[in-house]
Amino acid sequence: PMRFPLEALVEPLVHWYELNRKTFPWREDPTPYRVWISEIMLQQTRIEAALPYYTRFLEAFPDARTLASAEEEKVLKLWQGLGYYSRAKNILRTAKILAENGGMFPQARKELEQLPGIGAYTAGAILSLAFHLPEAILDGNLVRIFARLRLWDFLPAEGKKERDFYWDEAFRWAKADKAFLTNEALMELGRKICKRSNPDCENCPLQKICQAKQENRQNEFPKKKVVRYESWTGFALVVCDKNENFLLRVSPRSPFLKNQLMFPLFEYADAFRNRIPGIVESVIPWEKIDQCSWAGIVEHSITRYKIRCRVLKVQIKPNAGLDGIWVSASELFEKLPSSFAQKIAQVAE
After folding, report:
1. Is the CB of residue 165 less than 8 Å from the CB of residue 176?
2. Is 344 helix (H, G, I), strand (E, B) or coil?
3. In the beta sheet, which residues pair with residue 265?
4. Cα 21 to Cα 328: distance, rounded to the nearest angstrom
5. Is 84 helix (H, G, I), strand (E, B) or coil?
6. Which of 49, 64, 85, 157 could be disulfide-bonded to 98 (CB atoms 3.0-4.6 Å)?
7. Max Cα separation, the chain?
8. What is the pTM of this model?
């Protein structure tokens, strides 16, 4: 790869950042805890959408020790709407580990990466932005900037060699003076200027050394990622008694929302024919069913799944004695953290 003197680039970049930086609560007071929570929230969520969640979360759990002693249900409730709930569960697990260590974060990449839910990027962000160590970060913004600067027509996800190219570049930038400012500036540049579509190259502090800009090929980089979605067809079983209490279960074998309270889900190719599938009997014996009917259809995407799910509503006879957790209609939305489960509940109403 081509080399250019970094000092000459970092200076205009950091200067641009200091003139254009936005103020965010985790930037104003970048403690390791605050940086960590913000980075986990921003993994799958835009800053504007995450801000109110961040504020509420920090009010409820201002530090790792407070969080460590929280009920999982309360943590999930505050996460509700951000999706990808394994993130919230990992945050709680990590907080408990940190609390045993006096609430302190380790200052070494290797130890940080051993904590639940903290990968190479988040570890680098904590070390760089909170501890001001010369550590690299690499997120989608930096991948896009590096690919355009260097005309790299490969992505870090393609293999070890490709990933190492990007990380080596990220470490080169992090070696500059005040790495935390350089890293923040690169991320801000990716968000504001070097955007995925219609990058604002005329206002970019790196335009003179950007090869994509020189060749007018900005839109060819980074290379497009191919996402293959899997389709899932089935039905959700909404079981209620005559007092409108609903049956929820935790299903460890479900491909989505493992180990969360959920309506029983079944993958079933014939869900869109009108007969009632026999597999229902694994939850309720026929003789205990008072009435049942198809209530409607929910379409939803989770990670790489495109879901088409019919909703089978079943009312049971008194004293059916079914296993699971019964929740009243008024509590239902509170007990269901995922928007997928909430859509099912709405269709069943």
Report:
1. no
2. helix
3. 236
4. 48
5. coil
6. 64
7. 78
8. 0.71
